[in-house]
Amino acid sequence: MIADLPPLDVSTRIPRLRGRLEEAGVDALVVTGMSNVRYLTGFSGSAGRLLVGPEQALLVTDGRYRTQSAEELAAAGVEADVEIGRPPEQQEVLVKAATAYRLLGLEEDHVSWGWKRALAGALGGQTELVATAGLVEGLRRVKDEGEVARIEAAASVADQALARVRPLMAERPTEEELALALDYEMRRLGAGDRAFETIVASGPNAGKPHARPGARRIGEGELVVMDFGAVVEGYRSDMTRTLCLGPPATGVLAAVVEVVQASQAAGLGAVSAGVGGAEVDRACREVVAAAGWAEAFVHGTGHGVGLDVHEAPALSVTSTDRLEESSVVTVEPGVYLPGHGGARIEDTVVVVAGGHRVLTRSPREVVVS
To answer: Looking at the whole model, is its pTM more than 0.70?
Structure first.
């Protein structure tokens, strides 16, 4: 089971956000992305909005969370007013507080057009709405000790689950059966949930990067791509391993595995503070291209991991992000040959002084006897 984890440093986050408001050109910000709300307050409910001004923090949510919101904010050491009500009542409270500000920021990636129109109508033009991007996400890029510990715990749960499930390969289960076994073991080991929908793709299905597990039974000599993760206290892990029952059946499949292993090693070797996300992507992509499979590497090399399984920074061809110490990212090159199969190997790593530390520790060997 999961050992005691160091506390999260939640109480400093709203003050740090306040320090970014002026630069963003707003007097206050309405936080609507639920992962961002949780990051700033510790509130883990499924519905709520947070208004943050220079001296004010107001959380509005519904009656399901009356007790939970108070308990979680107190445990996090967060000072904020909490108002409980039905959606119209929440909107009324939020609008009344927002009229104190001339320029009110909205999270452009987390607000619907309908809600923005309704808010603008309720404010009556006396407060201008301003689109903002990445204000909270920018804070989330660098993890504190408690965050890294939770991601590492989630990675350990996934590692243990794979170790328990790996022997089942010999029984030639279906993709669905193998995925269900992984999900079950992660919950049994203490995970609050799976980090995302578990992927198990065998044979030709492994040539589809995000294939869903189906009734196909795993065959000998086929590559089996398994992409999964666990959640521990809201924080996620992400790992992919490619396995094979016995040696790969063809030389092409064996070569795909070797190339992906070499590509991932090159990417991991490039991860360090100050390095651009595009540089890590290039390190992986050059290995795949040299093998003649550049067009078969169809996605970015990696992404940040935390309260969301995909967050900043990005490791891709177009990324302008730079890695910072204590950022947590994945490195996950893949090669996919439609109709034949494919391979992906992925680890979650934390950037440390002079390099990185791997959090997902399952063996990368492919062959299962």
So the answer is: yes
